[in-house]
From TrEMBL:
<feature type="region of interest" description="Disordered">
    <location>
        <begin position="156"/>
        <end position="179"/>
    </location>
</feature>
<protein>
    <recommendedName>
        <fullName>DUF7848 domain-containing protein</fullName>
    </recommendedName>
</protein>
<dbReference type="InterPro" id="IPR057170">
    <property type="entry name" value="DUF7848"/>
</dbReference>
<feature type="domain" description="DUF7848">
    <location>
        <begin position="126"/>
        <end position="195"/>
    </location>
</feature>
<dbReference type="Pfam" id="PF25232">
    <property type="entry name" value="DUF7848"/>
</dbReference>
Amino acid sequence: MEPGTLVYDPATRKVGEYQDRTGPYVMLRPVGGGREWQADPARIRVATLEERLSAGVRAANDRSREGLSADPSRPPVPVPGCAVCEELAVRRDQARAAFDGSAVTDANVLLRQHQRQEHGGEPAGRRIFRYVPYSIVQDASAVPEYQAYCVSGEEEDCGASSGPRQTPAEVEEWQRRHTQETRHLRYRRSFADYAVLERQG
């Protein structure tokens, strides 16, 4: 299992990020950061999509309540409506743009100090996020695109492309013609479409 994989631990009924093995146990870290805990590797399983989403929403709510990032390694989030928070966040963004890591760290430290002193770790007008189930469906108003690229060649790929087409049949016809002309046999095909989220219930 790769580090960072989100898994469900039935013993604690929590979703955590897989970190590593320690003796007979595995170490899991709360989503959004926090103290790690030990779990039985025989009982954990990969978290479902709904479990991952719920854990993410819970972590976002925790950060909103605290006014600070739950994980000190993550940058603090400005409190909405606070001019000082916004000013420090702008200073941090400017430092990032200038690739000045020291100034970025300074801005984060000042932002955390300000939030502890002025907001008490509790942002005014905090937002609570609630999990809402959605279905992802293809957007019927947009036309999907199909495309093929010739990747035949001994030293480098041919690189010829069918260009975007509206049906697989058009792409296959281009492949046949290209093979007749070049004797190339290997292609990489791609498909692109648009999707929309529809709220369930």
